[in-house]
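name: query_chain
kind: protein
chains: 1
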Amino acid sequence: MRNAFPKESTAQQILALINEARHALKGVTKNSPCLLSPELSDITNSTVCLKFENRQHTSSFKERGAYFKLISLTPSEKQKGIIAMSAGNHAQAVSYHAQKLNIPCTIVMPKFTPDVKIRHTKKFNAEVIIHGHSLEEAADLANELQEERKLTLIHPYDDKYIIAGQGTIAHEVIQSFPETEVLIVPIGGGGLISGISLAAKRLNPNITVIGVEAARYPSMQQAIAGKPIQCGRTTLADGIGVKRPGQITQKIIKKYVDDILLVDELAIERAVLLLLQKEKTVVEGAGAVALAALLTHPQQFHGKKVCLLLSGGNIDMPVLSLIIQRGMERAQRLVRLVVTLRDIPGALGNVCQKIEQTYANIINISHRRTFTKLPLEAVEVTILLQTQGAEHIEEIITMLNNEDVQCKLADH
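structure:
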């Protein structure tokens, strides 16, 4: 565990700014709920507390750093305007507070940005420019426009004021859940965990701070290890899909963050669904990675008092809908049953009637008479069923087999 807190100018400057930010943010951002989760505690064999930053006005923690940075600008900088690049949450936070402060605002967003984040950013009267296939390409254009238009760049993570604003979360967590032993925090460019780790270690030198990256975007882990940055193209956790970690943030994370864990796409998906099921709260992929890490590495946190940061809730509804459907499929609450029947009137109706007697819900039926090796008088029917789970499916298949109906679960 990294307990030491050496004196260094950057860390001390940011710590002083965190104290300023705590006062500046009063009445502006929410002291978001920090609540124990008995169900997640039982599932993970640890004591789990959730910090609901998805309940901020723009549904993410980004408001803290954005507002604190904007109020630090000079009158001249405010008059000329600002520019930011973002895959969504930083864009919304910056544009929201820029509108409140009457600061002209331009946002460059990459093409993969979820539609919900683009719409919300435009709602706050920002000029939105969609450019590039990555955050890095969007950043390059933002830098060009900054010079051309003489704007002030509001960096999403590599800025002392941004880091300080995010660091106020640590104070709220420790005030609400002082027994916290481990803080698990998402990592993209590193601004969030940099501020949190500095403040948390100052308040409690024995606390452990763990960062989490998507396995497809392990850029901070690679940078700190001195390895080349190698990332994938897409991730459900698009909010932390960053290929260029911050320079300030790298130095802080290397000294004050105890470990960085990676989580795969399936674990992120499962965590989004579990939070919806157990906590009735909607989070985006990046907002779920802390829980994904806890579920992926349960032994590392066994018996510990753990606080998970739910960093944001801006997820497109079609994506959330697909996560729910895939989750139902994995739990065998949604299955495709393949039935082979004689192609005569009444055969399918008889099967449907028997299925309905088991209280399964028939969602869809499709027939296949061609592209099959079945005899000419036979038909293959795929029935999409909503069930109560694996035992219910077994009951249905057994019942149909006993009625001399040939059936099986469809292959994936």
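note: The radius of gyration is 25 Å.
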